[in-house]
Amino acid sequence: MLSVETLADDVLVPDYDRSQLRARILHIGFGAFHRAHQAVCADRLAREQQSDWGYIECEINLHSTGTLVESLRQQDHLYTVTEMADSGKTSRAVGVITAAVNARTDGIDAVIEAMCQPDIAIVSMTVTEKGYCHHPATGQLNLEHPVIQHDIAHPDAPQSLPGVILAAVKRRRERDLPPFSVMSCDNMPENGHVTRNVVLQLAEKQDAGLADYIRHHLTFPSTMVDRIVPAMTQEALDTLGEKLGCYDPVAVQCEPFFQWVIEDNFVNGRPAWEKAGAELVEDVLPFEEMKLRMLNGSHSFLAYLGYLAGYQHISDCMEDENFLRAARTLMLAEQAPTLRTQNVDLVAYADSLIARYQNRAIKHRTWQIASDGTQKLPQRWLDSIRWHLAHNSRFDLLALGVAGWIRYVGGVDEQGNAIEINDPLKETLAQRVSESAEGEARIAALLSLQKVFGDDLPANEQFTTRVLDFYQQLLKSGAKETVKQLIASY
Description:
The chain is α/β, with parallel strands linked by helices.
C-alpha cells in the first residue's frame, strides 16, 4: 500500500502541510490525464507557493466501478505521477486531493453535496468529448440523448454532466452560497462555450429562472491542455511499483512536457496557476485550434493509419520514415494554414511534436487514440477540410485520415483480425458497415452521419471523391504503401 513512508527515497513527496489545504476545486472525471496534469499543477503550487487550493475528486460515470476512488481513499488520497523520457524516469507523490466521491458507490447526491461545500470556487472536468452529451458538429446539446431525456424528467437525480452541474447550482442558489466557475479541460475547441451551451440548454428545459441565474452569475472559462498520458496497463503498474518501492493502483505515467492555457475568467477566485507553468490569456481559441489540429489531428491520423499498418504505439509509427514525414507534413502543409495563431513558430512547434512522438518511454497506444472517433473528427480534421474546400487548397492527408477512419471502423484490420471499436456511436457504425458493401456504398453510408459530418461535406463531390479514392487505395495496397505513395507526392 502506498504511503509517504513506503515510497522509495528518490520519489518527491509532499513537503507542505496537507491539513491546511481547503477544498476549493471540485474536479469531475478522475482519469489518468487529470491526475498527470491539473492535479500536478496544484501540487506544484502547494509545494512552491504554499497554495491552499485543494481538490475534491468526483467520478460521475454511473458505470464506473469506483475502484480508483476507493484505492485513493485507502492511500490517504495520495498517488504518484512518473514522467517518462528516454533519458530516465522521475516520480512524485501528489498530495493536493482532500476527498474523493464516486456516484455509483456513494450516490449521485453525495456528488452534488460535495459540489455544495461553501469553499468550492471552481468545478472542472475531464470527461472526454462524449461526456458533454452534445452534437460535435454543432456544439449544441443532444436533446435526444437518453441521459439528457432522463435529466429533463428527473432534474434532482441527474445522470449527465450538465445535469449534475445544474443540480449543484440550484442547490447552492437555494442555500445562498456563492456561484462557481465551470472549467472544461477536455479536447474541444472553445470547450468553455460548449460547456455553457449544454448547461444552459438543459437548464432551459428544466427551469428558465435557473438558466437566467447561470447567465448572469457563472462563468465558463475555456482551456487548452497538453500532455501525453497513456492509459495505464497492469504491466505498467507492476513495473512502476518496482521503481516506486510500493504498488500504487492509482499511479500514472506521462511525458515531461506540460502545457495549460486558461481563459482568465473566474467569478470566485482561482489559484495562481501562472506560477506553476500555466498561461492565463484573454482568448484560448487560437491555442486550442493549434493543439487540436496539429497535435491531436496528427495523433488521430497516426492512430487509424498506424493501427491498420500494424503499429501498436505512436513511437512505433515514428520509426517508419513515411509515417513520420506524413505526420509532419499534415501539421505544416494542411493544418497550419487553417490556424488563427499569431507570433507562433509553427515549424518549431511541429518539430517539437515529432520529438515528443519519438519518445520510446511513452507507450501511447494507437488503439487508445483511435477511440471515440465520431466525437473527435469534427474538430481535429473536418473544420480544416472545410477551410481547404473554401480556399481550393490541397487536403489529401486529411482525406486519407477520413478514409483510414472508415477502414478502421469497418471492424477488420488488414490481416483479417477483428478490431475492437470503442465509440459512443458504436452500434450505429456497426449497422451502417453491415448494411453497405465495400467501396462507394460504405463511404456514402458513413459520411452521411449528420452528427459527425454535417450536411455540407457529404454533399461536396470533391471531398467524397478524394475519400473514396484513398479508401479504395487502402483496400488495394494497405496503409503502409498508401502513406508511402501519398507522401512521395508532397
